[in-house]
């Protein structure tokens, strides 16, 4: 494995986007390896034998799993450029709390929004909208979740923005209209080269999910 930094990922993963953004923020050169999630590579299975999931960051031949852990690892290994976590212990703890909140509260509802119909999807809609309300409240009138500086919580959540259109179309959510502050925040994030380079086109995400629902799940 000649490359020092390798990322095993999938293009539309909002979790993998976190790691890619962090690497871009730090100016770290890395090799991106797209995974086929229906036929996972031997390298992925070797490097993440417990969860067998993307993203996996490989640094000097050693794997780091789970995206938020990867982002914090990147910040520690390359500390001199664009710090991601606050230096103040309290603010750092708050950033970790909200990034953990995003992880714990979004995975289930977001999967159900794209894969379910009827009551299960309705329950997921309520859960996800509650998450958005809490994040909207935490953001308040700040430019970024940490104040005036782009940081961990922004990286943790910005990937979901590329999925908002999909959730609106397949689950009949009204995100843009109900959360203008979050949309304005996302647009500020997109002015950063790291974010603009990583986030996929929302129409591409929608087409991918629509095709999956129709061809794999049999949902029109």
UniProtKB/TrEMBL annotation:
Protein name per Swiss-Prot or TrEMBL = glutathione transferase
EC category: transferase
Cytoplasm as UniProt keyword = yes
Q: Which residues form the GST N-terminal domain?
A: 3-82
State the PANTHER family in the record. GLUTATHIONE S-TRANSFERASE U23, GLUTATHIONE S-TRANSFERASE, GST, SUPERFAMILY, GST DOMAIN CONTAINING
Which organism is the protein's source? Answer: Brassica campestris (Field mustard)
InterPro entries, sorted: Glutathione-S-Trfase_C-like, Glutathione-S-Trfase_C_sf, Glutathione_S-Trfase, Glutathione_S-Trfase_N, GST_C, GST_C_Tau, Omega/Tau-like, Thioredoxin-like_sf
| Catalytic activity line of the entry | RX + glutathione = an S-substituted glutathione + a halide anion + H(+)
Q: Which family does it belong to?
A: Belongs to the GST superfamily. Tau family.
Give one GO molecular function term.
glutathione transferase activity
- Coarse class of the protein's main subcellular location: cytoplasm
Task: List the GO cellular component terms.
Answer: cytosol
Q: Where is the GST C-terminal domain?
A: 88-212
- SUPFAM superfamilies in alphabetical order: GST C-terminal domain-like, Thioredoxin-like
Gene3D superfamilies, A to Z: 1.20.1050.10, Glutaredoxin
One Pfam match: GST_C
A GO biological process this protein is involved in? Answer: toxin catabolic process
EC number in record? 2.5.1.18
Q: Please state where this protein is localized.
A: Cytoplasm, Cytosol
